[in-house]
């Protein structure tokens, strides 16, 4: 199964979608795309990956030229399910088959400095920032931005990895020693009420839809819950968030889903990060929206019309981190929809999520109380 | 992929569900069960089956003893996705692994005479019927029931296959010559306003849920559309239908989904047929109910609590028979959800369905008008 070779060249009119990466996002893309008549091929170095049961798997390193060629053969389109895809791999693929989202979106999404520069270029408010290339640069950045500030790696950061908060001058030296050697970025430490995110989609013909804003709660740098639609979102906030999403989608020539994390601060939104792909903060759409982010991503990259992002009730998405309680207890909660990823439990590892949906905000609170008897929900 | 051998014995605590048959029902069971953390193995003689991309496939005849043994090895539970499974195959499997629904349900569901006898035994109204074993028996049955009547094969009938309406005495001889040689059944030709169906589920712990009644429209013996919830269903009708479903579920010791087709006749419901499995008239639940019939079947056979059968709006399911219009046109209709089966188009073949959902009956009519521009919907 999981290491079957590709079936050989597919005639044009292929219905085969290639996904770089075979993790849970690939799994959920396939679950959404198969009913639309598509088939899937994954490029994934690890065995037993979450997507491995849902299509062909080319089990190889992303840098393996021969595997890349085999992977790309006969595909309708290539997409990817995480940011840390080697850009060179996508460029190789893009020579033979359409790659959506375009590699340009990825190049920006995988580099926090380029993200910030894109925000600045498009007039999107963001925390003050400076590139840090050496120790002198760090000192200059602290001089300009002040403390507290956040020192981040420019690349390969996710789920809170690759960042340190600097509160006192005494913390600067140790942080530098721990993080030096890779390109860095210093950002002002921003005070914000909460983190919201806007998940938006641009179709191949340029149409754009936005899902209602979700409110995200993190713990230990990992997303724990998203509530959608977020409470207390004014028309103005909705417009601002959608304008930010649309500006980025258009600027990148993006096709597919793009998520933007926004700090809800005193003076308005500050854009924090983008993800040029389906995003954890959009998982609630599987059960809480007319069309899920996964289906809309597939629709976008295959040239189908986008589906409605309207909500179907009020939702909370709760990540299952580390281990999962008895599935019977979870699905016994009214309105709870379980999504497991087929991953072995391990501390700090996302192994699934629960989408809890109710027809009213009050109903959702009642159901959350029941789910809280099953799952740790301290901050939901 | 599609003919990979089984991975060998699975330790107890297996999450592997075996499905006899790899058609579209198996495909949709897997799509619903994978997010719950289950994996699938199919026993299917044909290559390139609709379920083949969604798990291991043992490609073999249902009578192949060695293949049956390999199929059953290490499974959590076995289920089946059509009635015409050889009973002997299930009995062989049941010696080593739980089989749900129980073979008793199947034995009744695959024989129209036993169905009728079960209805009669449980006091469930049905059309008058007589077993027909020979030509004399046919004449006696016509004598008792009168014409018009319907001559049916007892077994292997579906989608209108294996039945003939006898209106005139002159039609009796030719029908007998065409159908003789297999066990037959004569039924009174019943006048009814419409066909409704109740899809119900019984969990492993004995709990029962019923989906709202759907109204089915057939053409050329093939189900074309189901509307749910059906219009004009009184509380009394709802109670009667649910009582029929519950009586059958309990009598059979059924675990899983069971569908009952009901004629809505002058004097009340007449039970027509049962399907001891997920059923085409329940496909609307994928997008129009809180929990789909597929997920509830998986929950039932794996001992999980059943999910809510509540509707999420008003639905019409439209089968795609023979060929499918451009998917882009279908998914461009607001509220349309496309479910293709990965089957090659062929006249009279069900290759997929569309679930059209709207938040109100009026909204559904508007959307149906739009879908009608894309699909033939003469009788929806």
In words, what does this structure look like?
The structure is a homodimer of 380-residue chains. Chain A has three domains: 16-109, Rossmann fold, CATH 3.40.50.20; 128-188, 2-Layer Sandwich (Dna Ligase, domain 1), CATH 3.30.1490; 194-374, ATP-grasp fold, B domain (D-amino Acid Aminotransferase, Chain A, domain 1, 2-Layer Sandwich). In chain A, a hairpin with a 2-residue loop joins strand 11 and strand 12. In chain A, the strands form three sheets. In chain A, strands 9, 10, 11, 12, 13, 14, 15, 16 and 17 form a nine-stranded antiparallel sheet that branches. A four-stranded parallel sheet of chain A has the order 3-2-1-4, with helices on both faces. Chain A has 380 residues and is α+β, with helices and mostly antiparallel strands. In chain A, helix 1 (24-33) packs across helix 10 (293-301). The first copy, chain A, contains twelve helices and 17 strands. Chains A and B meet through helix 11 and strand 16 of A and helix 11 and strand 16 of B.
Q: What is the multimeric organization of the chains shown?
A: homodimer
- Give the % helix of chain A: 25-40%
Shape of chain A: globular
Task: Specify the number of helices of chain A.
Answer: 12
Q: How many strands in all of chain A?
A: 17
The CATH class assignment of the largest domain in chain A is Alpha Beta
Number of domains of chain A: 3
Structural class of chain A: alpha+beta
The CATH superfamily of the largest domain in chain A is identified as ATP-grasp fold, B domain
- Unreliable sequence segments of chain A: 1-11
Mean pLDDT of chain A: 92
Distance between the termini of chain A: 39 Å
What is the succession of H and E elements of chain A?
A: EHEEHEHHHEHEEHEEEEEHEEHHEHEEH
Biggest sheet overview of chain A: 9 strands, antiparallel
Provide the CATH architecture of the largest domain in chain A.
2-Layer Sandwich
* Radius of gyration from the alpha-carbon trace of chain A, in angstroms: 21 Å
Binned strand content of chain A: 25-35%
Determine the CATH topology of the largest domain in chain A: D-amino Acid Aminotransferase, Chain A, domain 1
Largest interface: A-B, 37 and 37 residues
């Amino acid at each position: 199964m999981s290491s079957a070779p590709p079936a050989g060249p597919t005639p044009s009119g292929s219905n085969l979608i290639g996904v770089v990466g075979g993790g849970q996002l690939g799994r959920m893309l396939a679950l959404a795309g198969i009913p639309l008549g598509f088939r899937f091929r994954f490029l994934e170095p690890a065995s037993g990956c979450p997507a491995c049961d849902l299509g062909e798997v080319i089990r190889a390193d992303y840098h393996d030229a021969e595997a890349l060629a085999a992977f790309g053969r006969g595909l309708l389109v290539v997409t990817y399910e995480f940011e840390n895809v080697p850009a060179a791999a996508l460029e190789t693929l893009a020579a033979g088959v359409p790659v959506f989202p375009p590699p340009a979106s990825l190049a920006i999404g995988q580099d926090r400095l380029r993200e910030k520069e894109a925000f600045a270029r498009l007039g999107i408010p963001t925390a003050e920032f400076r590139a840090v290339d050496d120790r002198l640069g760090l000192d200059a950045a602290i001089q300009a931005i002040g403390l507290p500030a956040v020192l981040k790696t420019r690349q390969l950061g996710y789920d809170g990895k690759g960042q340190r908060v600097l509160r006192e001058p005494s913390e600067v030296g140790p942080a530098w020693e721990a993080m030096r050697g890779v390109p860095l970025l210093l950002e002002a430490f921003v005070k914000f009420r909460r983190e919201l995110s806007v998940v938006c989609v641009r179709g191949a013909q340029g149409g754009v839809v936005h899902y209602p804003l979700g409110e995200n709660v993190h713990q230990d740098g990992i997303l724990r819950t998203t509530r959608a639609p977020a409470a207390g979102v004014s028309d103005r906030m909705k417009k601002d968030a959608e304008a930010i999403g649309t500006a980025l989608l258009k600027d990148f020539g993006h096709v597919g889903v793009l998520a933007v994390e926004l700090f809800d601060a005193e003076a308005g939104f500050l854009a924090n990060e983008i993800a040029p792909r389906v995003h954890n903060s959009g998982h609630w759409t599987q059960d809480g929206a007319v069309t899920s982010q996964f289906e809309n991503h597939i629709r976008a990259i295959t040239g189908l019309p986008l589906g409605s992002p309207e909500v179907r009730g009020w939702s909370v998405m709760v990540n299952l981190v580390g281990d999962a309680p008895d599935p019977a207890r979870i699905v016994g909660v009214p309105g709870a929809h379980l999504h497991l990823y087929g991953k072995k439990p391990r501390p700090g590892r996302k192994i699934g999520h629960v989408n809890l949906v109710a027809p009213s905000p009050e109903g959702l609170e009642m159901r959350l109380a029941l789910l809280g008897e099953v799952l740790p929900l301290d901050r939901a």
